[in-house]
Specification:
about 170 residues; alpha+beta; 6 helices; flat; Glutathione_S-Trfase; cytoplasm; Glutathione transferase; Glutathione-S-Trfase_C_sf
């Protein structure tokens, strides 16, 4: 199995950390985003969406980090707490994975890009009001993570880590 990744990307880090932690054998294939390798012809034949992560398992190719994580859970028979068989527990993981794309991921990524890429590309700092708005949106998402999903529990499902927690962790790390 091959995983096409750039560890600067939180979704790639989630896939990588999961595979490493559970000792799932894979071949690491670096796709250097800063060099634009996701746009080269070879990678384009593998993934029409030109984004990482990508999993290649024989002739089967899968994109999107959460789909890859769920595939690895089911293919590799990992501990149930990662993606529970219980319908309601699994629904809670899926609820978070669905929510996070346009909330925590979007808002944390925006703050990261405004603080790191914007000054490099534009040659100046981000206007204060733009940064303040981005930080406020991120804080709202972090508060929602705490209030709705964690609710004073150590993990989203309670006492054991799940895919939802791993995906949340890499965004917060960024």
């Amino acid at each position: 199995m091959e995983l096409y990744l750039d560890l600067v990307s939180p979704p790639c880090r989630a896939v990588y950390l999961f595979a490493e932690a559970l000792k799932i054998p894979f071949e690491f294939k670096l796709v250097d985003l800063s060099a634009g390798q996701q746009y080269n012809e070879e990678f384009g034949r593998l993934s029409i969406v030109k984004k990482v992560p990508v999993l290649k398992d024989g002739s089967f190719v899968l994109t999107e980090s959460t789909a890859i994580l769920e595939y690895l859970v089911q293919k590799c028979s990992v501990a149930d707490h990662w993606f529970p068989a219980d319908l309601q527990q699994r629904a809670r993981v899926n609820e978070y994975l669905s929510w996070q794309h346009l909330n925590l991921r979007s808002h944390c990524s925006k703050v990261f890009l405004l603080r790191t890429v914007y000054p490099f590309v534009m040659g100046s700092e981000v206007p204060k009001e733009k940064m303040d708005t981005a930080v406020e949106d991120m804080k709202l998402s972090l508060n929602m993570l705490e209030e709705k999903f964690l609710q004073n529990k150590p993990f989203i499902l309670g006492n054991k880590i799940s895919l939802a927690d791993l995906v949340a962790m890499v965004e917060i790390m960024q």
